[in-house]
């Protein structure tokens, strides 16, 4: 590993330009190039590689509030999908030298192999305060174009996340199987950008899973003869996913257990004619307090979403019961459908900030299938 500690940092200048004209100057991190997306921030102190590879971040420029990124390197086994899914990284200290013996690579090599453009040595505290006050917006990072006028022209062409369908772009293209074929329960997974750890949490609880592309219809799902259905997490605007909403409505009529996480939670709501909306900032981090209204317990949760379900519409809908609420802003974090074995949560129960505060949700899904 000695060569890892002799690598020189990159001094190539880079620019971050926000949609409202705000400019930040820093240094290149990762690949030299240009990238665009909607800027957001994550408050997690660890787990940067899991965040980078979470498909729910597709199309997002990520600001990390933790000051040091790269200090424990990267490891092949610590990914949530087949590749980096964030559109770009914005950080304070991009640390190429790492201290973990188990790491496979340094973050610079990792980013270059994955083709990810980033910027470091910027005031991330100022950037986060700006986004917090002004709301989520598009932005551009470049270490090859330093002309602000040219960057503004390129940024103007980037579509808004509002109304953008992205799940089909990160979904599997072919069905695949996970778990023991002799397992007690069979689960049909609609992959809108699922994380590997979610699937593993179900497989280790005695589920045999078949993971289907996002636009799979009910007939193909039923051919697997599943005991339950899972709607995964994923990126983009759920209201733009007419194909998934239609399938979710059809699955609701099958009277089989349904579990949804994150985007899957929003799609279950939309299938019940409960609208979603784009949040001012979204929730992204591993420190969000959520209250389980059924037990009275509070969970420390991992979250990553820029859309949410309409609380007033849920309260007016007699088909649905609210099961979880966010203690920071009272947004809806969980619902269940009255008279059916169907429930969902907005957060990520497979993640471990609590560390296992929310793993019971997988157990609840298994019990429904018994």
UniProtKB/TrEMBL annotation:
<dbReference type="InterPro" id="IPR006274">
    <property type="entry name" value="CarbamoylP_synth_ssu"/>
</dbReference>
<keyword id="KW-0547">Nucleotide-binding</keyword>
<comment type="similarity">
    <text>Belongs to the CarA family.</text>
</comment>
<comment type="subunit">
    <text>Composed of two chains; the small (or glutamine) chain promotes the hydrolysis of glutamine to ammonia, which is used by the large (or ammonia) chain to synthesize carbamoyl phosphate. Tetramer of heterodimers (alpha,beta)4.</text>
</comment>
<feature type="active site">
    <location>
        <position position="348"/>
    </location>
</feature>
<comment type="pathway">
    <text>Amino-acid biosynthesis; L-arginine biosynthesis; carbamoyl phosphate from bicarbonate: step 1/1.</text>
</comment>
<feature type="active site">
    <location>
        <position position="350"/>
    </location>
</feature>
<feature type="domain" description="Carbamoyl-phosphate synthase small subunit N-terminal">
    <location>
        <begin position="12"/>
        <end position="142"/>
    </location>
</feature>
<feature type="binding site">
    <location>
        <position position="56"/>
    </location>
    <ligand>
        <name>L-glutamine</name>
    </ligand>
</feature>
<dbReference type="GO" id="GO:0004359">
    <property type="term" value="F:glutaminase activity"/>
</dbReference>
<dbReference type="GO" id="GO:0044205">
    <property type="term" value="P:'de novo' UMP biosynthetic process"/>
</dbReference>
<protein>
    <recommendedName>
        <fullName>Carbamoyl phosphate synthase small chain</fullName>
        <ecNumber>6.3.5.5</ecNumber>
    </recommendedName>
</protein>
<comment type="function">
    <text>Small subunit of the glutamine-dependent carbamoyl phosphate synthetase (CPSase). CPSase catalyzes the formation of carbamoyl phosphate from the ammonia moiety of glutamine, carbonate, and phosphate donated by ATP, constituting the first step of 2 biosynthetic pathways, one leading to arginine and/or urea and the other to pyrimidine nucleotides. The small subunit (glutamine amidotransferase) binds and cleaves glutamine to supply the large subunit with the substrate ammonia.</text>
</comment>
<dbReference type="GO" id="GO:0004088">
    <property type="term" value="F:carbamoyl-phosphate synthase (glutamine-hydrolyzing) activity"/>
</dbReference>
<keyword id="KW-0436">Ligase</keyword>
<feature type="binding site">
    <location>
        <position position="306"/>
    </location>
    <ligand>
        <name>L-glutamine</name>
    </ligand>
</feature>
<keyword id="KW-0067">ATP-binding</keyword>
<feature type="binding site">
    <location>
        <position position="234"/>
    </location>
    <ligand>
        <name>L-glutamine</name>
    </ligand>
</feature>
<dbReference type="Pfam" id="PF00117">
    <property type="entry name" value="GATase"/>
</dbReference>
<feature type="binding site">
    <location>
        <position position="307"/>
    </location>
    <ligand>
        <name>L-glutamine</name>
    </ligand>
</feature>
<feature type="region of interest" description="CPSase">
    <location>
        <begin position="1"/>
        <end position="186"/>
    </location>
</feature>
<feature type="binding site">
    <location>
        <position position="266"/>
    </location>
    <ligand>
        <name>L-glutamine</name>
    </ligand>
</feature>
<dbReference type="GO" id="GO:0006526">
    <property type="term" value="P:L-arginine biosynthetic process"/>
</dbReference>
<dbReference type="GO" id="GO:0006207">
    <property type="term" value="P:'de novo' pyrimidine nucleobase biosynthetic process"/>
</dbReference>
<keyword id="KW-0055">Arginine biosynthesis</keyword>
<keyword id="KW-0315">Glutamine amidotransferase</keyword>
<feature type="binding site">
    <location>
        <position position="263"/>
    </location>
    <ligand>
        <name>L-glutamine</name>
    </ligand>
</feature>
<dbReference type="InterPro" id="IPR029062">
    <property type="entry name" value="Class_I_gatase-like"/>
</dbReference>
<feature type="binding site">
    <location>
        <position position="304"/>
    </location>
    <ligand>
        <name>L-glutamine</name>
    </ligand>
</feature>
<dbReference type="InterPro" id="IPR035686">
    <property type="entry name" value="CPSase_GATase1"/>
</dbReference>
<feature type="binding site">
    <location>
        <position position="236"/>
    </location>
    <ligand>
        <name>L-glutamine</name>
    </ligand>
</feature>
<feature type="active site" description="Nucleophile">
    <location>
        <position position="262"/>
    </location>
</feature>
<keyword id="KW-0665">Pyrimidine biosynthesis</keyword>
<dbReference type="InterPro" id="IPR002474">
    <property type="entry name" value="CarbamoylP_synth_ssu_N"/>
</dbReference>
<comment type="pathway">
    <text>Pyrimidine metabolism; UMP biosynthesis via de novo pathway; (S)-dihydroorotate from bicarbonate: step 1/3.</text>
</comment>
<dbReference type="InterPro" id="IPR050472">
    <property type="entry name" value="Anth_synth/Amidotransfase"/>
</dbReference>
<dbReference type="Pfam" id="PF00988">
    <property type="entry name" value="CPSase_sm_chain"/>
</dbReference>
<keyword id="KW-0028">Amino-acid biosynthesis</keyword>
<dbReference type="GO" id="GO:0005524">
    <property type="term" value="F:ATP binding"/>
</dbReference>
<dbReference type="InterPro" id="IPR017926">
    <property type="entry name" value="GATASE"/>
</dbReference>
<dbReference type="InterPro" id="IPR036480">
    <property type="entry name" value="CarbP_synth_ssu_N_sf"/>
</dbReference>
<dbReference type="GO" id="GO:0006541">
    <property type="term" value="P:glutamine metabolic process"/>
</dbReference>
